[in-house]
Amino acid sequence: MSHVPMRRDLAWTAATVGATLIGSLIPLVTNNRFYYYDDTQAGAFGIWFEIGAKISSGEWPLFSDSAWGAGNYAAEGQWGIWNPLILLIGLIASKSPNIVVFSTILKITFLCVLAAGTFLVARRYKASPEWAAIAGVAVTLTGFTVYMDAASWVTGLMVFSLLPLAWFGLHRMAFAGANPILALATSYVLITIGYVHGTLMLAILFLGLLTEAWVHASRRAALRLLLTGLVCGTVALAVYLPGVLTAPVTARTGGIVNSGFLTLDLTGLATAWVPGSLPQVTGWWGGFAPVPLLYVAWFLPALVLVNYGRVRGGIKELAAIGVFGLLSLGLTLAPSDLGPLRFPVRLMPYVSLAVLIGTAVLVSRYRVAALSRARLAFTAAIVVSGLYLAWTQFPSFRLAASFGLLSVAGIAVLYFFLYSGRVRGRFRTPALTAAVPILISLVIAGGQHAAFKGSPLPDYRMPDASAGYTQQLPGAKGGTFVVGDPTVLGIGIWDETLASNAWYLNPAEVQNLYSPIMFAEYAEDLCISSHGWTCAAAGRKLFETDETTGDVLADLLSLDTVQILRDPQPQANDAFRDTPPAGWHETSRSENSVMWARNMPLLNTGQVVWASAGADLTVVSESSQEVVIRVNRLDDGAGNAVLSRLAWPGYTAEGASLAAPLRGYLVGLDIPAGSEGKDIVLRFSPPGWPVVIGSIIFAVAVTVFWSVAEALTVRRRPRKMTGATLPAAISP
To answer: Residue 723 class from Cβ within 10 Å (0-12 exposed, 13-18 middle, 19+ buried)?
Structure first.
């Protein structure tokens, strides 16, 4: 194969990434914290920091008893404990002095990967390099990707950014006989990030590629895809099996219902080319999105320029794009809850990907040579109807006029450049053909960020620098619980407390961490949300007496420090105004918070906190995953014990048996008669652990063996091209 086309495509890829880099910097002009919203701030960075801290200390982040509802990392899935990229990100994050800068650089890097992968996929389907570059840049500027995934939901951005690269690797592996290492490695990294929507869309991509192999009657391509799918399936089993087996105790719901929350309709999709359209998408913000959430690209009306009669002759080559796009669209239009899958609008980026790759392929391969009046009229009809529908959803004349003029001007310039007789010869080069739409896209992106400066998700305004997370709760010892919601008290509260996974950056051992699954009984008992904040009533609940044991709940939870935040709407049970109970004292008080500390700290998180009468127990050793308990005495023949640990599925006991969890969530033990002088060993392993380990070993072994075998034999056999393969002259 000639190296000239390869060098040309490398240059085009670099140009695509360069334009994407410029586009990704545009939001920072109006908002330097644009890439540090909501879940990145409250969830992801804390996870990365904790991963890095544990790896640096020689631990593997599998399970933490002191993190309580958020400590079951294997069941959470999104900790990426099997993912070398996430582990590396964690190491770097734990040493980064500025969190906002780190998050910004990381997300821009993934946007560049997304652009490069999209360019390569479009080229695999014979799109011209200029239109492949246009699609590569445009996919990073789509509304949901910019305002939701890039701004906040970073795991969604990660898997979406990796999927085009996996698509490229899978297509080359299946249809061009390329080494499977790229396909297997990118798929492995994508799956082990643990964001289930990305894994689901990878499975749909496999269906699309298998359809492509079927329509070309390529048995070899199908077999290679099936073997790759088997490897990916075992990786997915390892990532998600612990979560599935843990689900009975979590707050995740099942069933199919439609609350209308974060769903979309066809009207919103019909305005996907309008940069200022604010569609009817119900979310935390109300009934209509306050940003162009469903925006795809301003140049989509250019699909009018395609000669669809000619498309029929090459439809087989586009099978995977069609299947992937249609199935993505179907899931995006699904009910709000499909079992554990929620918020179908999350899949809008994948619809955008299919649309943009399809547009690049169709326009570059099947564009009509001359622009007829009929096509101009059809374009005008699409433009007028789209602008009208956008206006009806959010009837702001100023918004409709400004973005309407921008998009109409962009379409007019594009049509003029492509068809005007005044643009000839050296002015209609591939470079300029790409530069004109990309420049218009960047200008429109600038207009969007001038009008919509941030994500519709919250910016809690927590500190930028890592050092700003260490001074809260000074002197806190042992297990710590925070009562209240800090996000309603203004940004000054971050000098006194933190929220969600930001606590990982603080030396205090705080229970109030972020968990998308939650331990249901624990969360309900203490009215604790997935983000870790609680209702005011939790302040009183902590110091109530448990009916079964006769002990105070704070003792059973191994709490030595409690911080109570002011409730802006005081209630009768607001502990903020109470004096500390017996055995506790007040250590600090401000307008917004009060901190209580135990007079004699227990410092016994994860250990025995209650034993039945006549039972004398001593903890011999204790770690997150194992406790060894010596039975010194059992006066009544048998006994019971409770430990300050959540009763996650996966615990086993030697020398005793697991009892029904106290209050539905604390680990209980039934100690048999005759146990005096013996040891009880309580261990935790994620449920299905042998299957998990076996699946990872199998997947890695097959990947290494297959990739090495192909590398060793590739020189002994010619590369056999099949049905959908590109000619060597343009194969990237």
So the answer is: middle
How does strand 584-589 pair with strand 559-565? Answer: unpaired
**Token pair in block for residue 611:** 């034993």
Give the mean model confidence (pLDDT) for residues 618-633: 96
For the chain, give every domain's residue range.
Answer: 19-263+307-367, 470-542+559-598, 608-684
User: In what helix (H) or strand (E) does residue 661 lie, and over which residues does it extend?
Assistant: strand 657-662
Name the pTM for this structure.
0.94
User: How would residue 575 be classed by pLDDT, with cut points 50, 70 and 90?
Assistant: confident
- Classify strands 608-611 and 639-646 as parallel, antiparallel or unpaired: antiparallel
Q: What is residue 584's three-state secondary structure?
A: strand
Q: Give pLDDT, residue 570.
A: 67
Whether residue 219 has pLDDT greater than 90? yes
Cβ pair 501, 514 in contact under 8 A: yes
Instruction: Mention every residue, 6+ apart, whose C-beta is less than 8 A from residue 526.
Output: 481, 534, 538, 541, 542
Output the DSSP codes for 519-576.
Answer: BHHHHHHTTB-TTS-B-TTHHHHTTSBPTTT-SBHHHHTTEEEEEEEPPSS--TT-GG
Question: Which residues neighbour 265 within 8 Å (Cβ) at sequence distance 6 or greater?
Answer: 279, 280, 333
Beta strands in 299-370 (DSSP E): 337-338, 341-342
Residue with tokens 């039975």: 631
Check residue 718 and give its pLDDT.
Answer: 54
First to last CA, the chain: 10
Cβ contacts of 233 within 8 Å, gap of 6 or more: none
CA distance 291 to 288: 9
DSSP state, 454?
S
Overall size of the chain counted in residues: 732
Tokens 């330097």 correspond to what residue? 32
* Orientation of helix 84-93 relative to helix 181-192, angle to 10°: 60
482: three-class secondary structure by DSSP: strand
pLDDT at 723 exceeding the cut of 70: no
Render 228-246 in DSSP notation, one character per residue.
HHHHHHHHHHHHHHHHHHH
Please report the DSSP string for 585-636 in residue order. EEEEE-SSEEEEEESS----TTSEEEE-TTEEEEEEEE-SSEEEEEEEEETT
Amino acid at 85: L
Three-state SS sequence of 379-394: HHHHHHHHHHHHHHHC
Least Cα distance to 664 among 566, 526, 543, 457 occurs for 526
DSSP 180: T
User: Alpha helix locations (H) across 345-470?
Assistant: 348-366, 373-393, 397-419, 430-451
482 Cβ contact list (under 8 Å, min separation 6): 497, 510, 511, 512, 532, 533, 534, 562, 563, 564, 565
In sequence order, which residues have a C-beta less than 8 Å from that of residue 333 and are 6 or more positions away?
263, 264, 265, 266, 344
Residues 285, 455: Cα–Cα separation, whole Å:
11
Q: How far apart are CA 58 and CA 70, in angstroms?
A: 21
CA angle 207, 211, 213 (to 5 degrees): 115
Q: 335 to each of 257, 344, 352, 373, 701, how far by Cα in Å?
A: 6, 7, 19, 41, 39
Tokens at 79, concatenated:
């900790």
Backbone angles phi, psi at 170, to 5 degrees: -65, -40
Q: What is the pLDDT at residue 342?
A: 86
Q: Which residues contact 303 (CB under 8 A, 6 or more apart)?
A: 359, 362, 363
Question: Which DSSP category does 43 fall into?
Answer: I
- Mean pLDDT of the region 586-608: 95
Asked if residues 337 and 259 have their Cβ atoms less than 8 Å apart, the reply is yes
Say if residue 624's pLDDT is above 50. yes
Question: Given a cut of 80, is residue 725 above it in pLDDT?
Answer: no
Assign 197 a pLDDT band (cuts: 50, 70, 90): very high
Q: Spell out the long-range contacts of 342-345 with Cβ–Cβ below 8 A and sequence spacing 24 or more.
A: 342/261, 342/262, 343/261, 343/262, 344/262, 344/263, 344/264, 345/144, 345/262, 345/263, 345/264, 345/281, 345/293, 345/294
